[in-house]
Amino acid sequence: MPSMKPAKVGLRTRLFQLIFESDTPAAKAFDVVLVILIFLSVGIVMLNSIAEYHQQYGNYFFYIEWFITVIFTVELALRIYCLDKPLLYLKSFYGVIDVLSVLPTWLVLLFPGAHTLIVVRLLRALRLFRVLDMMTIEGEKRLLLDALLRSRHQIMLFLFTVLMLVTIFSSILYLIEPAEAGFSSIPTAIYWGIVTLTTVGYGDITPITPLGQFISVAIMLTGYSIIALPVGVFSAEVIRALRAERYSDEACPGCGRHHHERDARYCKFCGTWLDEETADPRARE
Amino acid sequence: MPSMKPAKVGLRTRLFQLIFESDTPAAKAFDVVLVILIFLSVGIVMLNSIAEYHQQYGNYFFYIEWFITVIFTVELALRIYCLDKPLLYLKSFYGVIDVLSVLPTWLVLLFPGAHTLIVVRLLRALRLFRVLDMMTIEGEKRLLLDALLRSRHQIMLFLFTVLMLVTIFSSILYLIEPAEAGFSSIPTAIYWGIVTLTTVGYGDITPITPLGQFISVAIMLTGYSIIALPVGVFSAEVIRALRAERYSDEACPGCGRHHHERDARYCKFCGTWLDEETADPRARE
Amino acid sequence: MPSMKPAKVGLRTRLFQLIFESDTPAAKAFDVVLVILIFLSVGIVMLNSIAEYHQQYGNYFFYIEWFITVIFTVELALRIYCLDKPLLYLKSFYGVIDVLSVLPTWLVLLFPGAHTLIVVRLLRALRLFRVLDMMTIEGEKRLLLDALLRSRHQIMLFLFTVLMLVTIFSSILYLIEPAEAGFSSIPTAIYWGIVTLTTVGYGDITPITPLGQFISVAIMLTGYSIIALPVGVFSAEVIRALRAERYSDEACPGCGRHHHERDARYCKFCGTWLDEETADPRARE
Amino acid sequence: MPSMKPAKVGLRTRLFQLIFESDTPAAKAFDVVLVILIFLSVGIVMLNSIAEYHQQYGNYFFYIEWFITVIFTVELALRIYCLDKPLLYLKSFYGVIDVLSVLPTWLVLLFPGAHTLIVVRLLRALRLFRVLDMMTIEGEKRLLLDALLRSRHQIMLFLFTVLMLVTIFSSILYLIEPAEAGFSSIPTAIYWGIVTLTTVGYGDITPITPLGQFISVAIMLTGYSIIALPVGVFSAEVIRALRAERYSDEACPGCGRHHHERDARYCKFCGTWLDEETADPRARE
């Protein structure tokens, strides 16, 4: 019956606005509930990992977990229901997250051994990004990502060089340090080298020979001052990104090209007068 | 008698100038005494926390503490007395600090058990900010706060993403590391993860499995290079703030060009008089 | 026979293109194989340093190592063969690396004692830089190196001053700290000082006297905030480099204004044709 | 005899050039010898602090030490001799260093107990700065110092706020952590707090209660991201200092004021045409 279709569409549309958008009060409330449930479920996974809490409140956690999982599953079903191309959604980043955030609990039902899967639930936290996306951080995120993309070559080159140096220096310590120092193999030495270069410095492995300590000092000073490279490059990129504002998005009336600086009066490509309100001073001549 | 009232007002005004302002020599002396007393009382709380000092000089500390508390109480009373709207002051940041800096000592008198309150006295240190505020740091503070406010979104987004990554990676280590490694629960693992990502690296918990060490290395390198993000964003904001402080955003009425320094009176490009309110002195010639 | 010479030349030319260039499919494949072999041989040196792996798969590693060494030796021979000035190549950075990456294995054949030389093989990793050089990182590398060169004086001065401070403060701790603290000699104290200043903080040596802890705190705060110097200088240099890359330093022949973007053909202020070599297309009209 | 006086003056002048300047080959050689002696004596103080070296080569060190001290004393005498105002020199930074670098050794002769004074010899290292000063680092040093001076207010405010936060948070840990955690007193807790905030993280004191670990995490994240403040401020100042180049040091022909930007064509103070070679376009009108 045609009378039903619009109704059905209406329902799907309303569901879509409720779940996927956040401009109506109902949708806002929906987001808030979602965020609370996400934090709740993540908190439970964490508390449940603490031995005594697990013993005392284990089954409460169990029930709450199932309660949340059912809600999330229904929500997932509704998302799929009110979309015209559910597959596209399921293949998207958030689609995968949504599936991953309910799957483990159901799987444990089938395979009791799949206990480690429980941790996968923590991926639910990633759902918070969707709510963030709906808020006004779009600009910030783009700025950061843009600057990251622009500086990725320098930063990768930087990391690669750093790893080279660490590999070579660490192997030297593997050779010169006695067994009790803990440099048991080259991979372990490299682990130590990165612990040192990044200035983490656990202290689980430390050089004891004077030469070893001297080389460590070299690695530390390198790691301490070489951080200037990514920071400098990234700062420069952020500044450039912030300055992008100084380009007007007006096109040149002469050649139609964009990317003119705000203080430009003539098109830098074809020399046309850019300010259409006033007359070109050269016209007088 | 009306003759008293002005006197009384005069007293309150003089007290106000003495306590709340710092442009008269007396007020300056008052501030100096205040700073000394603050440092003295904070120092005493600290020394008193050292066992042997407490035993030896405990009662000296006790007397000095009471001496300072009485002075601060009198000062607080005077502040309230010489203000027309004392409640507004008591609700303000500094009002709360002032009350908190005398209350604990009196409370201990009533409830001898309230020993932990003693530490609240350390909040007295916050009173130093008031003296700082009277000094010339206003500009610096505004610059820093302004840049912080402008970059808070990026930095919060940065912290949020970092916490996500740490949560997920740490839980993996909680799963793969054996009991003796110390990853006893997910919260503990996250504590370790932040200790590692921030390059603090206590070493109280360290991975011992090769895979665990490999993931730690990933966290370290992330934490080591990701610091570039807040630093870059903040640098950019400070640079923008410093520049904004130097250039006016007014356009030249003659050539419409921007980017004039605040102290500019004539356009540096076309020589036009910039201040449209007044007349160009050259016109007179 | 003259007929052979061109053929020979042709062979050398083709070899040259295959080995030293990377624009033909064959050359690209050659690079890929090279990269794989480098990673393989580096990985083997690492795995071989792990005791149990060495026992189980020691001889496999041995054979693979010889296989790779032979290939690299042949490659080196071909490189020398197809160059007109092989000596220049052998004296170059990559030439030395290429020799160092095959020599150790052969030397172990002659002197079985030269086991430590094995680690020299890790220098093979440096060969990866050659492949990187052929890729599009040239610009990034130049940018970083340029900024590093421009800021090297400041950074050296910075490191020198830092080392001074560390030397002096560390010696004080060597004097005041008791034996059990671990400050056994001034060099050791300096090692500790740099571990502290660079915020590595192993914790293998820590001050235990209050005065010692106070001085350490001074060193930490210095190291924590002084990092701003190299970072600030380097950021400034990168920003300058990025800007220089974007703006030409030519002045406009019409209005003498600077700060034109490199792709500008007309002055954005007065619309004058910037390229003085050629004629303004508009003149024709 | 008057004939001697010029000779004497000549000698003093020559000595002055030799010791205080570095433009003649002799003076350069003098500096080189000085640098070598400084490094030698500093090296000896260090080696002598290592127990076994002290036992084996103790008296060699003793003789070399005396040899260097005598040379430095003679040099000091000559410096005083060839100066017209020796007192001014002795009161200057380098004068004090010069005296301190010979005094301890002589004092030990008088008071054998003054062993700790030996370490004062390390201050000799500071003499290297004089040689550095004669080299071309003047510019770099000025740039760094200038930027440091300009940003000192922000950085002091930053350090002050940081110390506040650390004091308050650390005292909380002093209250909540059990004795075995090592927070034995508030000063110790503050020591731990700065070890944590500066991301040094020795691990000699670590929180063990969940709440304590939570607060530590807050301190770590603060210390990890707050470093952006001094770095950002300092970067901005360095960039401003580097940009100072963009101001021409030409004075305005009209009002004689300086500080015009390089791209300025008219004085921003009096509107006079700055470029004296060409004519003011406005003259035509």
Notes on the structure:
The structure is a homotetramer of 285-residue chains. With 285 residues, chain A is mostly helical. Helix content of chain A is 67%, strand content 1%. The first copy, chain A, contains 12 helices and 2 strands. The first copy, chain A, has helices at residues 4-20, 25-48, 51-81, 86-91, 93-100, 103-110, 127-134, 138-176, 186-197, 210-226, 228-243, 281-284, and strands at residues 247-248, 260-261. In chain A, strands 1-2 form a two-stranded antiparallel sheet. In chain A, helix 8 (138-176) crosses helix 9 (186-197). The first copy, chain A, is flat. The model of chain A is unreliable at 1-7 (pLDDT under 50). Chains A, B, C, D: The chain crosses the membrane at residues 29-48, 60-81, 93-120, 155-176, 182-202, 214-236. Chains A, B, C, D: It is a multi-pass membrane protein.
Question: Layout of SSEs?
Answer:
The structure is a homotetramer of 285-residue chains.
Chain A: H1 4-20, H2 25-48, H3 51-81, H4 86-91, H5 93-100, H6 103-110, H7 127-134, H8 138-176, H9 186-197, H10 210-226, H11 228-243, E1 247-248, E2 260-261, H12 281-284
Antiparallel strand pairs in A: 1-2
Helix pairs in contact in A: 1-2, 1-3, 2-3, 8-9, 8-10, 8-11
Transmembrane segments (chains A, B, C, D): 29-48, 60-81, 93-120, 155-176, 182-202, 214-236
Pfam families (chains A, B, C, D): Ion_trans
Protein name (chains A, B, C, D): Ion transporter
